[in-house]
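Continuing the series of single-chain predictions for the mutant panel. This is the parent chain; the variants come on the following pages.
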Amino acid sequence: MALETKRREGGLRRWGVGKKPPLGVPFVSIITAVLNAAEALEETILSVLRQTYPHREYLIIDGGSWDGTVEVLERYDAALDYWLSEPDQGIYDAFNKGIRLAQGDWLYFLGAGDRLADERVLEEVFSEEPQEKFLYGDVVYLPEGRRYGGRFSKLRLCRRNICQQAIFYHRDLFQKFGLFETQYPLAADWALNLHCFGSPEVSPRYLRRVIALCPTGGASSRPWDPAFLRDRERLLRRLGKGYGLLYKVYRLLRPWRGKPWLSS
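Parent structure:
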């Protein structure tokens, strides 16, 4: 079935009543990318709307769904700050659209079907203005209930990524490093995280908390991103001198066996 090409949009902004960032407190923009996930999207929306932290906005970017997703967005039109439905070039293209539309000084990315762990996540993370610009915690994968995360070092980030649904990025990071690199359709967040961990100005902070619940089987659960793997030696150099060479030495000592050294 061909993608619907008609652009549709809605939400409170369309009526001139969207939220305005307050002065002196962190304002969080939550961005969801979705394509044909009508059955899963509502639970994601409700997990955001139930948040006790008031200084937030919610944007949903749909890639031109034809399965009833737009009807779900229309049903929640009066509760969403903004939603857009039009064809895109994938998850990170949708997220980049959201970044351009967002008003918040903090950005959080949540996939359709994912949900915030409980109603107090944002309230606890932003109870005071963070000094760092990159905050991350843990996620729980469903249905098995496996917790993933912990503290990451540069060396650990060489081998595996932080789950995107566990990360809060300050807007300054996108101004410094640019938007998500869409040539990496499944690992553009990993490419950005390498920049963040390699910069002495960022100082990522680990939060000992479950941020989100994530069902397995989505795009991010696929084992590798071929474009990312092709460029991985160069990308690892973002962490600092020697990390690209470290990967090259590892590959020489452990020949390719059909599975990438880097895995999420």
